[in-house]
Design goal:
Cofactor: pyridoxal 5'-phosphate
Bound molecules: pyridoxal-5'-phosphate
Subunit structure: Tetramer of two alpha and two beta chains.
Protein name: Tryptophan synthase beta chain
Largest sheet: 6 strands, mixed
Oligomer: single chain
Order of helices and strands: EEHHEHEHEHEHHEHEHHEHEHEEHEHHEH
Function: The beta subunit is responsible for the synthesis of L-tryptophan from indole and L-serine.
Helix content: 40-55%
Strand content: 15-25%
Radius of gyration: 19 Å
Shape: globular
GO molecular function: tryptophan synthase activity
């Protein structure tokens, strides 16, 4: 049977692999050899799931959004990752990877962050487990997500503002990789999405797969069948989407809809719609779709949403798009803002700007009345209040 899961060499179709500098080869190999052994170990699973339950507050609810459903003429369930401790899905992965780091004997944790949610999640788990934590964050993001910077600092992390490139997620990732190259022996790099060299994309997808594991159980209870007709999620690097679709990847009854950031529009020159605009290339250790110019130089992405502002995409998602297993929409800033205000007024839920891109794909779909749709609300909007307030007058309903 055709599978959309990773193969033994770390590829999803033609995408994936591990393209790393010589100095990191041993670290990445060590991880590749150990990650399945560790995370499949029953004692790891027990510790991981206990923390997901008692510390994160899982399972996250699967909420039937009645007024939203009425509007779009189908049954829309929201998977409420916004209700997790620290406000997004990122904590699932941070707990898993930091437990793994401890078992591999690493004493220092580094991370990159865009919207700050992965940085906050990593700093939180490092506080919990008493580990040193350094978070790299582009200076532009430090400014637009400063509430999350204050949280990371209060949690005891050192936040390093990065001033190269356009000072966003790509640049923070470059800096984190540089740090890792200088401290390969004691440092564990917690990547926040399904990106980077193999085994990161597969490892992050597995750690986030708790989302679809819960969806199966919750749908069975609420709908009498364990699969939906549609799964919808936003994609930055792809981790909340990977978690949402993981257990349904090879179940062709389930249609997958992904929303990437169109920015000001895919032809505007200010966009982060990598699947629409990218060509095959290598970024941060993985062969995937990359926004690049004719010389192979990476083009600076743009999105109103810091968490989607990335010129690459997870290799799993590049393959889903290439094989047409997933339908992919580019949702522009204004469409995401509209969708955020609409959800807030209809359901009393203020979503993260990233999640609002998934909601922004709803008006582009044609549903049948009996369709069951599960859309992941990857995070809450607290960190985006300044942006929302700025646009409020334009978007008053
Ligand atoms: C709330 C939220 N959703 C989505 C994303 C995008 O990341 P990913 O595609 O890995 O889920 C981010 C990234 O920072 C985020 O903070």
């Amino acid at each position: 049977m055709e599978t959309y899961q990773v193969n033994q060499n770390g590829y999803y179709g033609e995408f994936g692999g591990a393209y790393v500098p010589e100095i990191l080869h041993r670290c990445v190999e060590e991880l590749r050899i150990n990650y399945r052994k560790v995370i499949d170990d029953p004692s790891f699973q027990q510790e991981f799931h206990q923390l997901l339950k008692d510390y994160v507050g899982r399972p996250s609810p699967l909420y039937l959004a009645k007024r939203l459903s009425e509007l779009y003429g189908c049954k829309i369930y929201l998977k409420r990752e916004d209700l997790n401790h620290t406000g997004a899905h990122k904590i699932n992965n941070a707990i898993g990877q930091i437990l793994l780091a401890k078992r591999m004997g690493k004493s220092r944790i580094i991370a990159e962050t865009g919207a700050g949610q992965h940085g906050v999640a990593t700093a939180t788990v490092c506080a919990l487990m008493n580990l040193e934590c350094v978070v790299y964050m582009g200076k532009t993001d430090v400014e637009r997500q400063h509430a999350n910077v204050q949280k990371m600092e209060m949690l005891g992390a050192r936040v390093v503002p990065v001033t190269s490139g356009n000072m966003t997620l790509k640049d923070a990732t470059n800096e984190a990789i540089r740090d890792w190259c200088c401290h390969p022996a004691d440092t564990y790099y917690v990547i926040g999405s399904t990106v980077g060299p193999h085994p990161y994309p597969d490892m992050v997808a597995r750690l986030q797969s708790v989302i679809s594991q819960e969806i199966k159980k919750q749908l069975l209870e609420q709908e009498g069948r364990d699969y939906p007709d549609y799964l919808m999620a936003c994609v930055g690097g792809g981790s909340n989407a990977a978690g949402t679709i993981y257990h349904y990847l090879d179940d062709l009854r389930v249609k997958i809809v992904l929303a990437e950031a169109g920015g000001l529009g895919i032809t505007s020159g200010k966009s982060a719609a990598t699947i629409h605009l990218g060509k095959k290339g290598v970024i941060h250790g993985s062969q995937t779709l990359v926004m690049q110019n004719e010389d192979g130089q990476i083009e600076e992405p743009y999105s109103i949403s810091a968490g989607l502002d990335y010129p690459g995409i997870g290799p799993m998602h590049a393959n889903l798009a290439k094989t047409r297993r997933a339908q992919v929409f580019a949702i522009n800033d204004d469409e995401a803002l509209d969708a955020a205000f609409l959800l807030t007024r209809l359901e009393g839920i203020i979503p993260a700007l990233e999640s609002a891109h998934a909601l922004g794909a709803l008006p582009k779909m044609k549903f049948k009345p009996n369709d069951v749709v599960v859309l992941t609300v990857s995070g809450r909007g607290d960190k985006d209040m300044e942006t929302y307030i700025k646009y409020k007058n334009q978007y008053s309903l």
